[in-house]
Amino acid sequence: MDVLSRPADEFGNDGLVEEIWAKSAAEHAEVFFNLISTLDPKTIQLTPYDDVIYTTFRQDFPNLDVSVLSDDILKEPSEKIRWRSFCDKFNKVEDFSFGTLLRADASLDNSPENTLLVVRIQFLAIEIARNREGFNDSIRKKFKVVSPSLSS
After folding, report:
1. Cα–Cα distance between 141 and 131 in angstroms, integer?
2. What are the residue ranges spanned by the domains of the chain?
């Protein structure tokens, strides 16, 4: 059984669990960044529920500019209430409440200065919106993974 899927009350403040979580979150962020660096972001499907997540997100947050976000924007008291209501709609999505790393500025690479901690369903909603609305397009142009040329 994966240690991160066990009930939290079994661990308290276990440093090993935090280390495992941090490593897993960093790997997830890197895999996602590699995806949007390689593929056209508009073609990427993150879950079978992308259409529902996006439609619900834009109904609940029609004016949220997803290009650049901050903790202040996402976590001010009134926004936390709105996000909690949004997240509760997706409690059947696997790992919907797992802590996940999100790039604050969609035009920049992963870095400690450009990272926010959000729950997975927030990550999915924001990154699906960024993909569909073109905010991740610049990543593919700026950070495209270049394969080494083969010499004959």
Report:
1. 14
2. 3-142
For the chain, the helix, strand and coil percentages under 3-state DSSP, each to the nearest 5:
55, 10, 35
Q: What is the per-residue pLDDT across 53-111, written as a single tens digit (0 to 9) for each? A: 999 999 999 999 999 999 999 999 999 999 999 999 998 888 888 889 999 999 999 99
Write phi, then psi, for 57 (nearest 5 degrees).
Answer: -60, -50
Architecture of domain 3-142: Orthogonal Bundle (1.10)
- Beta bridge partners of residue 103, listed in sequence order: 115
Percent of the chain having pLDDT more than 90? 59
For 65-96, the DSSP string reads --SB--HHHHHSHHHHHHHHHHHHTTTTSTTT
Kindly report the pTM of this predicted structure: 0.81
Asked whether 100 and 28 are in contact (CB, 8 A), the reply is yes
Per DSSP, the chain holds a count of helices (H) and strands (E) of 6, 2
